[in-house]
Records
---
Amino acid sequence: MATAVVHFEAGAVSDRGRKRPSNEDAFGFSVEHGVFVVCDGMGGAAAGEIASSLAVDEVLRLLTSRPGSDVQGLKVAAENAIRVANQAIYSRAQRNQRLSGMGTTLVGLLVEESRLLVFNVGDSRCYRLRGSRLEQITLDHSLVEEQVRVGRMTPAEALRSPLRNIITRALGTQPCVTPDLFELEALPGDLFLLCSDGLTRELSDSLLESMLALDLPLDQLGARLVTAAKKAGGHDNITCLLVRAEG
């Protein structure tokens, strides 16, 4: 059976929110090469901004120069990019005591024709809207979400927990890190959202589902999501990268 030809378009918006003095999120993408990345940095002074920017730069550099490949090839390319980005951040922090402990979450999308690979470290997320149904693709690497998954905490308890900011995996904080990988097949009309937790802490999945169903250009849709998150509190930096599959 022939596979439908799928093309992609993208748009992104990033905002420091209402409470933070600076924006430690970073994003980057190349529609031509099928690479889309969002990072949420952490660390004192400007360390979070350095970590997230380093991760985006390294991942884009490596994945935009990859050869065309099958799904296994995409996995190898993504894992290598994560390894190199992690080492770049970790080494930089080791050389500069002011940057000690810096790190970043990362969520990315890698496209080859209609094949997709989603990869993540930390609690930045990827969602897919197919038709009117929103599905969270990634799993948060956070203490409370891991407790929810093993049944030791309810989702409602996780939302209220004072431990909800603790992530269990990040780029740059350890010599090695392992990403989660998710294989998908894109259909025309699919809409993917890559975002930092500044969005998902403020807006419920049901609200995201209804907003993503709006028929708007991607830049305008991203701006609406950011505005809604700021109105809901805007306690953190907010980044939305939207990727739409077209037939």
---
Amino acid sequence: MIALRPRVRALAGAARGRFDRSPARAFLRQLNALDFVNTSILFGAALLVSVLPFVILLSSLANHRIDNDLSRHIGLNRQGALIVSQLFSPSPAHPAAELVTALIFAVGGTMAVAGSLQVIYERVFGLTHRGWKDAPRFATWAGVLFGVLVAESVISDPVHAAVGPVGQGLVTYVGVAAFFCWTMHFLLAGRVRWRQLVRPAILTGLFWIGLELFSVAYFSAAIVSDSRLYGTIGVVFSLMIWFIAIGAVIVLGAVAGETWNQHKAVRH
């Protein structure tokens, strides 16, 4: 028994050494450097208070029910969707001055989200921070994001009818991967080659599909339960968790993809 202890220690040391040199260790190290949990929470909170009001305002101008799109994205059942619909006015009508003021703040908040996203990607790829001199890029990104959301809302039902849920999931995956590939290249001002962004985009799309599957299984019951226990604020809390999960998906996809890039480079 005593003779086995040095061998066990040697095996444990060898296993630890292999883990320290593995992609998994590099992945965890980079997540720790990014302060993964706090970054996801802060980014999710920024999405909730900035992007959602931005989309709601523009959707109200277009006389479109945003709650239907939101419920579809989260994967809510009929009861959960009904609860979410009660958060929004069925016929929004606001004075022009209030709409313009709110729109200005919403656009400013969405640009701040774009800036936060740029910081995340700069840290993942080891780049220096460009800051608010890229404000025109942030505004352009916000406009493209809104256009993508509107286009997705318009084509979602026809695509589902044409190719079914599996085909729609594949279309969603391709669209998400393409959007985040462009987002990384655009917000980083072309400082990272397209080739290096393919793997982060692929994995971000996969994590996004995973989030959609998780949302279908979790959020309907959570929203119903939180609504019964806490009322409207409970529903907002559930939405907050969903937006934080989006932040986690973005960080995990970028870090995992860049770790994959580095592993391939070392092997070659």
